Amino acid sequence: METSDYIQVKSSQLNLYRKIPFYYETASGSFALYKPVGVTLSEMRIRYRMLPKKLFIKRKNKVEAIQEVQSEFNREIKKCLKENDLLKVRGMVQNIVHVTLEEPVTGSLEGLGPTVNILVGEVTRNRDIVKILFDLTSSDYTTTRHSVNVMALALGYGKYVNFDKHKMKVLGLSALLHDVGKMRINMELLKAPRKLTEDEFNEIKKHPMKGFNILAGCKFANTEIRTAALEHHEKLDGTGYPGQKTDISEFGQIVAIIDCYEALTNDERVYRTAVNPLNALEVIRAEIVDAGKFSRTIFKNFARSLVSLYGPS
Question: What is the Cα–Cα distance from 120 to 130, expressed in whole angstroms?
Fold first, then answer.
């Protein structure tokens, strides 16, 4: 087989696999089995007392490998929640989302459902998990970090307005996957340290439709998840994109407001500095809500959810 039939396993994930076989590249350039199904890498080290510098899985096993990593991360998240190690939970959630968004296809994206389920259960009893998940500490601003932040604030919103657990899970998944279409956009455009040209911005504006198409191929029971991805840049006055819609779903509107707030408070750019939470809310109210582009009711509930989250216990 050619090298393209194999994918190198990241060193940080080597010990997470039991069900997936590992291969190493021989001196002749072919690939040979190193770790069979049913054993861990640690067990192989003990057995053979050697570890190749690079280990690979077959590309055809990629989705199955992601699913196994997701299961291991979810198991670790549950353990950390029991130990109240919330900072570690945040890191694990970011890891599982990062791994999943690297290969956003049917079979891998659905694996985030159990993760959100775990977090919804925690949010109902401990509001601190939302504050911990919302990460303002890193300059490494990525789609993963943004998506986890939007999900955290969406769960806080859902708790404030008394959504039931099922509705909170669907909202959480909608928020977490709203930008999945960006995985099909040139990464250089997403990270450009300057204002984009009109053509470049038009390319970025394709991500809601790309996200909708990705999610439409997944086996999610709720269509709201892909609809929110499609609508999170629409505006009630028809000035949004990609469809200039005015009839926007509830989750599409919620994710739109939270997405805007998160970007204003956390997305530091060369041409634009992040603003503090109060200023961000004022900008959204004055420039977007008062202009009839966002729902005033949803905006007020979101602002109140932030007060509830960060105010006195």
Answer: 10
Per-residue confidence of the chain (313 residues) as pLDDT tens digits? 446 899 999 888 888 899 999 999 998 989 999 999 998 888 876 666 667 889 999 999 999 999 999 999 999 999 999 999 999 999 999 999 999 998 888 889 999 999 999 999 999 888 889 999 987 665 566 889 999 999 999 999 999 999 999 999 999 999 999 999 999 998 888 888 788 889 999 999 999 999 999 999 999 999 999 999 999 999 999 999 999 999 999 999 999 999 999 999 886 554 456 788 889 999 999 999 999 999 999 999 999 999 988 776 5
Which residue, among 196, 233, 198, 237, has the nearest Cα to 212 in the 3D structure?
Answer: 233
Q: How far, in Å, CA of 179 to CA of 147, rounded?
A: 7
- Are the CB atoms for 189 and 164 separated by under 8 Å? no
d(CA 296, CA 170): 22
For the question of whether the overall pTM of this predicted structure is more than 0.85, the answer is yes
Instruction: Kindly report the number of other CB atoms within 10 A of residue 31's CB atom.
Output: 16
CA 86 to chain CA centroid, Å, is 18
**Which residues, 6 or more positions from 174, have their beta carbon under 8 angstroms from its beta carbon?**
154, 224, 225, 227, 228, 229, 251, 255
Identity of the residue numbered 21: P
